[in-house]
Amino acid sequence: MLDSVLTKDHERIDAYLNDFLLSLSLKPDTDKLAFIVSSLRNHMFWEEEYLFPEIFEENKLRIQGLEAEHGAILKLLEEVKRLIFIDELEDAKKKTQAVMRVLKGHNEAEEGYIYLELDKLESQKQADLLLKEVEHASAPKDWVCKVLRTGSLK
User: Fold this and answer.
1) Which one of 23, 32, 86, 107 has the minimum C-beta count within 10 Å?
2) Does the predicted TM-score (pTM) go above 0.70?
3) What percent of the chain stands above pLDDT 90?
4) Which domain holds residue 112?
């Protein structure tokens, strides 16, 4: 269960990164970049604070390596932001491609081993860990529920 959810999240973030990279050829989509950074930070938070601790002892070196990569990925994305700010778009493209290369290997390591280990946890434990992610999720600031949005509740 966790493997499928986490892998789908990787795919979602990868798609946004591809779109962002394309935007660097025209007009950098800084909103998309901010969304990517937020998505990655949320994904990494869930892994580091809730998921990895569940299997840490048996996977200590692997997990420490993945956590180091988390830091490298976020630093690269900060550099992309800086390069956009100073209008160095070709360098921003190269750094974005570097992020994508690091993420490719990183995701393969997580999906090929760590997530499979998480899937060995009892189903109730996996459900509890999924709920931890839901606890930290938030609706967009401008979201309004359907009934209030349509005015059908009077």
Assistant:
1) 86
2) yes
3) 80
4) 2-150
Q: Does residue 72 contact residue 102 with C-beta atoms inside 8 Å?
A: yes
CATH number for the domain spanning 10: value is 1.20.120.520
**Strand spans (E) along the chain:** none
Reference 104, options 41, 1, 18; nearest CA is 18
Residue 138 scores a pLDDT above 80: no
DSSP state of 143: -
3 and 120 Cβ atoms separated by less than 8 Å: no
Count of structural domains within the chain: 1
The Cα 8–Cα 112 span in angstroms is 14
Q: For residues 93 and 21, is the Cβ–Cβ distance under 8 A? A: yes
pLDDT, tens digit, for every residue of 43-58?
999 999 999 999 999 9
Report how far residue 102's alpha carbon sits from residue 5's, in angstroms, rounded to the nearest whole number.
Answer: 21
